[in-house]
Specification:
It is a single chain. By secondary structure, the protein is of the alpha/beta class. Helix content is 35%, strand content 24%. The protein has 18 helices and 25 strands. Strand 7 and strand 8 form a beta hairpin.
Length: 609
């Protein structure tokens, strides 16, 4: 959730570094800094807040240099402050770092015993001191850096420069993304290709365990042990403008298909990590979470549905009570506050008026432990919460939220696992399995997107309908709610969602041949009960459209249409089952000829009550 830019070139690289940071602002950050080497030595500038503030410092100081590294930081270890901002310096070295060094406490203690003084609260500072320590044993900058990196545990992307060796930058990757940019005037590195499009499209993607040495006219890549490797050079196809439609007809379609990448970006900090770190949500997360005895989630619309899914996770996996409130209702009712509540606000834009007002109300009631999950790092909601998690969905233009929803779910699941870990409910074996499942999630979701042709066929049956009923059970009932909302938003078909067990308590009276019934039917403990509910629909002449798992053993028949998702995904299946519902709403809207991206009466960011 932070960005790196590095450059060694035949020109002053300050403008390249600053523009690169600006293009990485969407990733979320609370401070920024850069380090440069020029004829008068090593120079560092740091600022709390926006890249614009760092730019002003650079202009004021007439900053220049042919070799430099720059960084935007999101606080995980140590509060946002200039002293904690990157780059960190040790004995003529400067280092920037994305990720979390899991064994930083052990390394800090050892380095202190060697006489190193620490001036920040970050895990990153140990890296600079560790390289400085290794330089005393091995005078070569590249070799010393490799020796230091071999001692790190966790996820990292690193860029290091050395005042005594001004013509080189050393970078390394383990878990957190990092790539090289090759140009005629020099060589570059960044955590995202978008930062380098200003200077080159020639990209080399580093792999986990790679270290690279950059010079103006050359580069080399080795493994941590020094064995040389070659990585393919590619030409980046990334547009400098992330809001271009490209090959897609609508932004909604584009954003549905961007979900695997959005999830991968949101979960990138997991990388090769062997454990889930509380610091992903902010420097004080562990201390705060240990004080919490219940969770209150406040949100609107699609984000509210994400909160409803999270309630099942938090209570089942973490064993912590959870309540979910519609933001516009919460502030207008008498509630019973508890100061040991974690108030979690969810929003794509971070400017939702009802959610902001509900947050203020909760704080006024004495509930000061707050956390937000948001897609816009500069938003009001992010600024007003002590703990924050920025979903890395990128710009979402379509009014009907899609990739923001799935990335919110991923963040909420991470939060659940952290609670479970701190409450002693997550064994090492379970933690490893959960990490593997999260890493595989983008691939699983990409397979679901391959169902689009079948979903397009189903949409023809829905287009002329005026009503639809969505059913789900357990944690998939909120997914049914989300499916109904999507259909309403962009096709203008009246749609309702119910827990399947409630069917006989009223909604069954509506079922006839003119009302399609859509069921979310994962292969879980409630499947057999759901099948019984579906039989009630068939007995009344209703036509069923069922999204089942590959191993769900549901067979299509007259009036029963079944689509099997590629795999069953346990607790995380909600993230997969929502995608066909998004595609269904999209293709129904296409057939009906509605304005998919700008549905009537709706706005992307609801900034008024």
């Amino acid at each position: 959730m932070c960005g790196i830019v590095a450059a060694v070139a035949d020109r002053n690289v300050v403008s390249v570094l600053l523009e690169g940071l600006r293009r990485l602002e969407y990733r979320g950050y609370d401070s920024a800094g850069l380090a440069l080497i020029n004829g008068s030595g090593l120079h560092r500038l740091r600022a709390v807040g926006r890249v614009a503030e760092l730019t002003a410092q650079a202009d004021e100081n007439h900053a220049s240099g042919n070799t430099g590294i720059a960084h935007t930081r999101w606080a995980t270890h140590g509060a946002p402050s200039e002293r904690n901002a990157h780059p960190h310096i040790s004995e003529g070295l400067a280092v920037v770092h994305n990720g979390i060094i899991e064994n930083h406490e052990f390394l800090r203690a050892r380095l202190k015993s060697e006489g190193y003084q620490f001036t920040s609260d970050t895990d990153t500072e140990v890296v600079g001191h560790l390289i400085a320590s290794e330089l005393k044993k091995c005078p070569d900058f590249f070799d010393a850096t490799r020796a230091a990196i071999a001692q790190l545990q966790g996820a990292y992307a690193l860029a290091v420069l050395c005042e005594a060796d001004p013509e080189r930058i050393v970078v390394a990757r383990e878990g957190s993304p990092l790539l090289l940019g090759l140009a005629d005037d020099g060589n570059y590195a960044a955590s995202d290709a978008s930062a380098l499009l200003q200077v080159t499209r020639r990209i080399v993607h580093l792999e986990n365990g790679d270290c690279a040495e950059l010079k103006r006219g050359s580069y080399r890549i080795t493994r941590i042990d020094g064995s040389p490797v070659e990585r393919a050079e590619t030409e980046s196809q990334l547009s400098a403008d992330a809001v271009e439609l490209g090959q897609y007809r609508h932004y909604m379609q584009k954003e549905i298909f961007e979900q695997p990448v959005a999830l991968s970006n949101t979960l990138e900090m997991l990388g090769a990590a062997r454990s889930i770190q509380p610091g992903l949500f902010g420097a004080n997360t562990e201390a705060v979470f240990k004080e919490i005895r219940q969770v209150l989630i406040i949100a609107c619309g699609t984000s509210y549905h994400a909160g409803l899914v999270a309630r099942y996770w938090l209570e089942e996996i973490a064993g912590i009570a959870c309540n979910v409130e519609v933001a516009s209702e919460y502030r207008y009712r008498e509630s019973v506050p508890d100061p040991r509540t974690l108030v979690v606000t969810l929003s794509q834009s971070g400017e939702t008026a009802d959610t902001l007002a509900a947050l203020h109300h909760a704080k006024a009631l004495g509930m000061t432990h707050t956390l937000c999950i948001c897609n816009v790092p500069e938003s009001s909601l992010v600024r007003e919460n002590a703990l924050r998690f920025i979903t890395r969905a990128g710009p979402e233009i379509g009014v009907a939220s899609t990739k923001a929803f799935t990335t919110q779910l991923a963040a909420l699941y991470l939060m659940t696992l952290i609670f479970a870990k701190l409450r002693g409910r997550l064994s090492e074996q379970r933690e490893a399995a959960e990490l593997q499942a999260l890493r595989h999630l983008p691939i699983a979701l990409a397979k679901v997107l391959e169902l689009e042709p079948q979903i397009r066929e189903w949409s023809e049956h829905f287009a002329m309908k005026q009503d639809a009923l969505f059913l789900g059970r357990g944690r998939h009932y909120p997914i049914a709610l989300e499916g109904a909302l999507k259909l309403k938003e962009i096709s203008y078909i009246h749609a309702e969602a119910y827990p399947a067990g409630e069917l006989k308590h009223g909604p069954l009276a509506l079922v006839d041949k003119n009302m399609p019934v859509i069921a979310v039917a994962p292969n879980d403990a409630l499947l057999e009960k759901l099948k019984s509910n579906l039989q009630e629909v068939r007995a009344r002449g209703g036509e069923l459209y069922v999204f089942a798992d590959a191993d769900g053993e549901m067979v299509a028949s007259d009036g029963l249409h079944v689509m099997h998702l590629p795999e069953h995904y346990g607790q995380l299946s909600a993230l997969l089952h929502v995608v066909p519902l998004q595609l269904l709403a999209y293709h129904v809207a296409l057939v009906r000829g509605t304005d998919v991206d700008k549905p009537r009466n709706l706005a992307k960011s609801v900034t008024v009550e």
